[in-house]
Amino acid sequence: MVGIEGSEVLVKFVFDAPSAKEVWLAGSFNNWSQSKSNPAYPAVPLQQNARVVMELDPKTGYWIAVIPLAPGRYQYKYIVDTSNWQEDPNTPEHVDDGFGGNNSIIMVTMPAEAKQDAPEEQPAQ
Question: 12 - beta bridge partners?
C-alpha cells in the first residue's frame, strides 16, 4: 500500500513470541529508539525517534506492527520485554550488529502499480 504522496509503503512486521509481555520494533528507520520515555508511533513520526510498540494478535499469538517506510534498505530488531533484542528469524538477510549478534535487513520497494505512475528513466547517452 502506498502512503501519502506515493513516497512511502506500509510495511507489516510480524514476530512470533506468544509468551512475551511486550514487543517493540527498533531499527534504522527510528534511530533504534528503545526508551519508554520516547513517545510512541503514530503520535510522533518515526524519524523523531518514535517507539514502535507492536500489538499482539490474540488469534495467532504473533506480534504485529505496520509502519510507513520510504523505499530503501533498513536494519531492525525486535525488543522483547524491554531488554531482549532479537533478530528476525524469517528474513533471509542479516548484518553484524557490532555487539556479537546480527541485525535483520529489509528492502522496501515501491509496488509495481506505483512504479507505473512514475516517469521512466532514460538510459544515459
Answer: 66
Domain 4-112 = CATH 2.60.40.10: yes
Distance of alpha carbon 22 from alpha carbon 84, whole angstroms: 11
- The residue extents of the domains of the chain are 4-112
Kindly report, residue by residue over 4-55, the tens digit of the pLDDT.
Answer: 456 899 999 999 998 999 999 999 999 999 888 788 888 788 888 888 999 9
Give the C-alpha separation, 106 to 109, whole Å. 10
Which residue has 513517545 as its cell numbers? 39
- What is the distance between the alpha carbons of residues 61 and 120, in angstroms, rounded to a whole number? 43
- DSSP strands (E only) in the chain: 9-16, 23-27, 52-53, 55-56, 62-69, 72-80, 84-86, 94-96, 102-108
pTM of the predicted structure, to 2 decimals: 0.82
